[in-house]
């Protein structure tokens, strides 16, 4: 039973969070919440999936859902690649895929104050760069699935980098999530953005084009 519980916890929580929950000395009702400074948050949506869903009658909805599941599963496979090891999938909401880079950063406790800002900027830039590469990879996967399924789904991406709070809510059914203005800005960049583009709400970049 302990092995089963361990497997379940590791499947629903990031590895660095699961390790804390599996600690036998941890109080059951202890709140898990951490403030992070340089996390890049991404919302990747397929805005025309809703239109695709609406085209079919009730008997075909299962096929629509099966196709969305295939897309999400292919997106998930990218997370196992070493270059994307710093990215955590947060959740999916309908046809929107939410992820974040930099949630498992080691604390900079030994960093000299005079070098702190330089390291912060470099860390933020690295997280944004990794997430942009991830978004480009998502776009490539979607293009391939479009060709295989004769669809024309488009990816629209919004990102933001900055401070946020990450934590786990619930005890019987714990859910890991992130909160803060950085998350809200990334969501707005996606919602009000253009299809086939990556929109970055960050001070040194504004937009990347997904296709030439």
Q: How are the SSEs ordered, and which strands pair?
A:
Layout: H1 2-12, H2 15-21, E1 32-45, H3 49-54, H4 61-78, E2 87-93, E3 96-101, H5 113-149, E4 156-169, E5 175-179, H6 181-191, E6 197-202, E7 205-209
Parallel strand pairs: 4-6
Antiparallel strand pairs: 1-3, 1-4, 2-3, 4-5, 6-7
Characterize the structure shown.
The chain is an alpha+beta fold and 212 residues long. It folds into 2 domains: 1-29; 31-209, 2-Layer Sandwich (Alpha-Beta Plaits). It is 42% helix and 27% strand. It has 6 helices and 7 strands. It has helices spanning 2-12, 15-21, 49-54, 61-78, 113-149, 181-191; strands at residues 32-45, 87-93, 96-101, 156-169, 175-179, 197-202, 205-209. Strands 1, 2, 3, 4, 5, 6 and 7 form a 7-stranded mixed beta sheet that branches. The longest helix is centred in the middle third of the chain and has 37 residues, at 113-149. The model is unreliable at 107-119 and 204-209 (pLDDT under 50). Its EC number is 4.6.1.1. GO terms for molecular function: adenylate cyclase activity; ATP binding; guanylate cyclase activity; metal ion binding. It is an enzyme of class 4 (lyase). Keywords: ATP-binding, cAMP biosynthesis, Lyase, Magnesium, Membrane, Metal-binding, Nucleotide-binding, Transmembrane, Transmembrane helix. This is adenylate cyclase.
- Gap between N and C termini: 52 Å
> SSE order in H/E notation?
HHEHHEEHEEHEE
CATH topology of the largest domain: Alpha-Beta Plaits
**Class of secondary structure makeup:** alpha+beta
CATH class of the largest domain: Alpha Beta
Q: Note the overall shape.
A: globular
Helix share, percent = 40-55%
Number of E strands: 7
Spans of at least 5 consecutive residues whose pLDDT stays below 50 are 107-119, 204-209
Mean pLDDT: 84
Major sheet description: 7 strands, mixed
């Amino acid at each position: 039973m302990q092995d089963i519980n361990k497997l379940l916890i590791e499947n629903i929580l990031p590895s660095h969070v699961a390790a804390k929950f599996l600690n036998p000395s941890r109080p059951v009702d202890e709140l898990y919440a951490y403030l992070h400074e340089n996390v890049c948050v991404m919302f990747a949506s397929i805005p025309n999936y809703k239109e695709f869903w609406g085209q079919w009658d009730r008997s075909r909805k299962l096929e629509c859902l099966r196709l969305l599941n295939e897309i999400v599963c292919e997106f998930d496979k990218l997370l196992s690649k070493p270059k994307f090891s710093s990215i955590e999938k947060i959740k999916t909401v309908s046809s929107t895929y939410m992820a974040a880079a930099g949630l498992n950063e080691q604390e900079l406790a030994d960093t000299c104050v005079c070098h702190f800002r330089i390291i912060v900027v470099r860390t933020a830039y690295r997280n944004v760069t990794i997430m942009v590469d991830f978004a480009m990879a998502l776009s490539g996967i979607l293009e391939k699935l479009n060709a295989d399924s004769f669809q024309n789904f488009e990816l629209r991406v919004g990102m933001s980098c900055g401070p946020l709070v990450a934590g786990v809510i619930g005890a019987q059914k714990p859910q890991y999530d992130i909160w803060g203005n950085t998350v809200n800005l990334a969501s707005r960049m996606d919602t009000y953005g253009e299809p086939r583009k990556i929109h970055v709400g960050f001070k040194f970049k504004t937009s990347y084009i997904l296709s030439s």
